[in-house]
Write a structure and sequence with these properties.
The protein is of the alpha/beta class. 23% of the residues lie in helices and 23% in strands. Strands 1, 2, 3, 4, 5 and 6 form a six-stranded antiparallel sheet that branches. It has a six-stranded mixed sheet with strand order 11-10-9-12-14-13, with helices on both faces. Strand 2 and strand 3 form a beta hairpin. It starts with a helix and ends with a helix.
Amino acid sequence: MKFLSCQVSYLNHLIKVTWDIALTYVSEDIPSPGIKGKEHEQMTLDIKGDTATSLVLWASGNRADVLVEGEEIHLFIPGRWRLGQKAVRSVVPGDKVMLRRETGKWRMIRRLPRKNEFTRRMPGTRKNIPQTIAANIDRVIIVASSANPTTPNGLIDRLLVTAMLGGVPPVLLVNKIDLATADRLSSLQRVYKNAADGVFFTSAVTGVGVDDLSRLIYSGITLLAGSSGVGKSTLINLIDPDLDLKTGEISRATGKGRHITSEARLHRLKSGGWIIDTPGLRECEPWRMTRPILGGCFREFEKLTSGCHFRDCLHDQETGCAVKLAVGTDVLPEERYLSYLKLLHEVRSE
């Protein structure tokens, strides 16, 4: 990514100086999870006679807000779309839905095929139920906090796998760098530099990196994903103050963020592009994660697997595994490989 070099330079600067100095400066009638359909076209939401293509901004229960030729309207989601498993969301922010005008009112008639989706396994239940958060997105920015609260590497890894399984290009953004040590930032850069389409560092307090973030999301639809308290809404407000999204503080009792954003919603940015702010994700079990495809969700493996002796190598106990030989090198940090093994063994235990 073209902004990565300046981020790396800034990180090196942080390592060499004290913090005091540094901080001065498919058409389908009912939904089914999974990737479907062709690449969507540009957002030209047309009205042709009594039919229209709309963009879903928000959806909850049996209601949704959609955009038609610049006008936001509130609609009911057809009951037959909501049959089946309770947690399955029939439409989500980013979906395109065909409408038909009947007796002067718009009605949903079908959801257009998705080019991708960000779907996790429904938390709080042992049932294997998908929970789609957004669809038809051009990138997901995984927002991690370097401190107060510190985002565990394990959650970052799960969010990365979820993005890859859904066909969504991931970017890692490390926020609150004004509270972090140089060693922590250096470690994140080392571990994740090959895992995503760039690693960015920001501070909502000092403003460092916010301009780079603004340039990254100026076009297309961007999903922000991360746990509560990492600063997702705060960063959006810095880029577009007119949105005035609610923000919260960290709980003194738990050291974790409080849920402020209650539901995912798609916002248009005045500088260009669209952003989906999401509720905090304290856990993320990747949907449809299986052993054969898990390795493909770790980008560091891409240039290594061709050297494995077995075509169906799981990079665990097999002999002649090129991935295992690369562990601990600049290509594949040990932390990422151990995270892969943890996820692999979780799948096996199901």
